[in-house]
Design brief:
Order of helices and strands: HHHHHHHHHHHHHHHHHHHHH
CATH architecture of the largest domain: Up-down Bundle
Strand content: under 5%
Number of helices: 21
CATH class of the largest domain: Mainly Alpha
Length: about 475
C-alpha cells in the first residue's frame, strides 16, 4: 500500500477515536462534573443520552449531505462541529447547557463516522480493502484503550473541563490531515433530486424514539409503559418510513440495498454478534469492581486487554483472509468469540489476573477479526453511487445493536440477581456467570447467517490480498 492509502483509513477512522475517547473519558469524569455543576450524578445521564439521541436522529442526514456537498467537505465540517461543541461543553455552567451542547456534539458525531467510512470505500481500490480496513480499526481501538486512563488522569491532575478541551487539538489535527491526504472526489456529482423531508422526519422520529426506549429501559428514568410506548411508536415510524421509501425515486436512505446478501449479513445477520460485543464493555468493569472487589485502576488495566487483542488483528487479518476466506473466517471467529464469552463465566475472585488478561486478549482478537471481515465484505457488492445509503444505514443499525447490548446486559444482571434472592443493585460475582453464558449463546446466533454466505464470498478481495 502507498503512504496515502495507509493514511486515508487512519484519517477517516479518527472520528471513531474521538468518539471512543470522549465516551470513556466522560463516564470516568461524571462524579467530578456532577459536583462542579451541583447536580445529582444520576441526572448527568441526560448528557450521555442526549448525545446518543442526537446521533440517532441526525445519522440519516449523513448520506444525503455527503452526496450534496461532497464527502470530504462534510467530513471536515463534522469534525469541526464536534470540536466546537466539545469546547462549548467545557464552558457549560449547568445541566441544561451541558445537554444542549451534547446535542450539538451528537450532530457532529452523526456526520463524522458514516461519511468517513464512505470516503474510505470510495477512495480505496477493492484489492487493497482488506489492509485498509485493518488500518481503519486502529484509531478506535486506541481510543478504547487509553480512554479510561486518560479520563482518570485528567480528573486526578486537573479539572473535568479538559476531558472536552482535549478533543480540540485532536480535531484540528484530523481536519488538517483529511484536507491534505484525502483525495477530492471526481466524476459526476451525486446530487439527489430533492431532500426527502418527510422521510427524514419519519426516520428521525423512529430512531429517536427507539433509542429513547433503549436508553430508559431498566434505568428507572421513565415508567415502563412509557418506554414500551416509545419503542412501539418508534418501530411504527420506521415501518412507515419503509412504506414511504418504496414510493420515492430518491429516498433519504434506500432500504433496497438490503437485497445484497453480503450487506444484509453485515447489518442484520451480525446483529446478535454486535449486541454481545456491545454488552462486554458494560459487564466486565462491573464484574471486576463489584463482583471481584478490584479498584477502578485494576479493572481498567484488565479490560484494556480486549483492546490489545483487537489491536493485534492488524498482524493476522490479511493472512487469515488468504488462508480461510471470508466465510470460514467469520464462522470460526464468531464461534470462538461465543465460546470465549461463555468461558468468562468460569472466572472467580481468585482467578489469576494473567489468565483473565490472556482470555480477554483472545476474546478481543477474535471479535475484532469478525468486525473487520464484516466491514470489508459487507460493502463489497454495493455500487459506489449507493455507498452513502449503505454507510448511513449500517452505522444506524450498529449503533442500535451496541446500545441494546448494554440494556440486555443490565436487564440480565438484574434478573439473575433477583433469581438469587438479591435486589438487582448489590451484585455478586455469581450473578454475572449466567449472563456471560447467555451472551455467549446469543453470539452464536450469527452463525446461522454466516453459514448462508457463498463459499467464494469476497473471492476477489481474497485473491488481491494474496497477490
Amino acid at each position: 500500500m502507498s503512504r496515502s492509502t495507509r493514511l486515508v483509513p487512519v484519517i477517516v477512522a479518527s472520528p471513531l477515536f474521538l468518539q471512543n475517547l470522549d465516551s470513556s473519558v466522560m463516564a470516568t469524569a461524571l462524579p467530578s462534573i456532577a459536583q462542579s455543576l451541583a447536580v445529582p450524578v444520576l441526572h448527568l445521564n441526560l448528557a450521555i443520552t442526549a448525545y446518543l439521541l442526537s446521533l440517532a436522529v441526525f445519522l440519516p442526514l449523513s448520506g444525503w449531505l455527503a452526496d450534496r456537498y461532497g464527502a470530504k467537505r462534510v467530513f471536515c465540517a463534522a469534525i469541526a462541529l464536534f470540536a466546537l461543541a466539545s469546547a462549548l461543553c467545557a464552558s457549560a455552567t449547568g445541566l441544561p447547557s451541558m445537554v444542549a451542547f451534547r446535542i450539538l456534539q451528537g450532530l457532529g458525531g452523526a456526520m463524522m463516522v458514516p461519511v468517513g467510512r464512505l470516503i474510505l470505500l470510495r477512495a480505496i481500490p477493492s484489492g487493497e480493502m482488506v489492509s485498509a480496513m485493518v488500518w481503519f480499526t486502529v484509531p478506535p481501538v486506541l481510543g478504547r484503550m487509553v480512554g479510561p486512563l486518560v479520563g482518570g488522569a485528567i480528573v486526578t491532575i486537573t479539572t473535568w473541563h479538559w476531558i472536552f478541551l482535549v478533543n480540540i487539538p485532536f480535531g484540528l489535527l484530523a481536519i488538517a490531515m483529511a484536507w491534505a491526504y484525502i483525495p477530492d472526489e471526481s466524476g459526476p456529482a451525486r446530487v439527489p433530486v430533492h431532500f426527502d423531508g418527510w422521510g427524514f422526519l419519519l426516520m428521525a422520529a423512529g430512531l429517536g424514539l427507539l433509542m429513547t426506549a433503549i436508553e430508559t429501559a431498566g434505568k428507572a428514568m421513565a415508567p415502563v409503559w412509557l418506554s414500551v410506548l416509545a419503542a412501539g411508536t418508534g418501530i411504527a415510524c420506521l415501518l412507515a418510513y419503509h412504506r414511504h421509501s418504496r414510493s420515492m425515486a430518491h429516498p433519504l436512505i434506500d432500504l433496497g440495498i438490503l437485497r445484497w446478501r453480503t450487506f444484509r449479513t453485515n447489518v442484520l445477520g451480525a446483529a446478535p454478534l454486535r449486541v454481545a460485543i456491545g454488552a462486554m464493555p458494560f459487564l466486565l468493569p462491573l464484574l471486576f469492581q463489584l463482583g471481584f472487589g478490584m479498584s477502578p485502576l485494576q479493572s481498567g488495566l484488565l479490560t484494556m486487554a480486549s483492546a490489545v487483542g483487537a489491536l493485534a488483528t492488524r498482524l493476522v487479518m490479511k493472512r487469515a483472509i488468504i488462508d480461510f476466506g471470508f466465510r470460514r473466517l467469520l464462522l470460526g471467529a464468531c464461534g470462538v468469540t461465543g465460546l470465549s464469552y461463555m468461558g468468562y463465566s468460569l472466572w472467580g475472585p481468585d482467578t489469576p489476573h494473567l489468565v483473565v488478561f490472556a482470555a480477554l486478549m483472545v476474546g478481543g482478537l477474535v471479535s475484532s477479526l469478525c468486525m473487520v471481515a464484516l466491514g470489508t465484505l459487507g460493502f463489497s457488492e454495493i455500487p459506489k453511487p449507493r455507498m452513502s445509503h449503505a454507510t448511513a444505514l449500517s452505522t444506524m443499525l450498529q449503533q442500535l445493536s451496541v446500545s441494546f447490548g448494554v440494556v440486555l446486559g443490565a436487564s440480565l444482571l438484574g434478573a439473575v440477581s433477583w433469581w438469587h434472592g438479591g435486589d438487582g443493585h448489590h451484585l455478586q460475582s455469581r450473578d454475572f456467570m449466567p449472563v456471560f453464558v447467555i451472551v455467549g449463546l446469543l453470539t452464536l446466533l450469527s452463525l446461522l447467517s454466516f453459514r448462508r454466505l457463498p463459499a467464494n464470498a469476497g473471492a476477489d478481495m481474497r485473491e488481491a490480498a494474496g497477490g
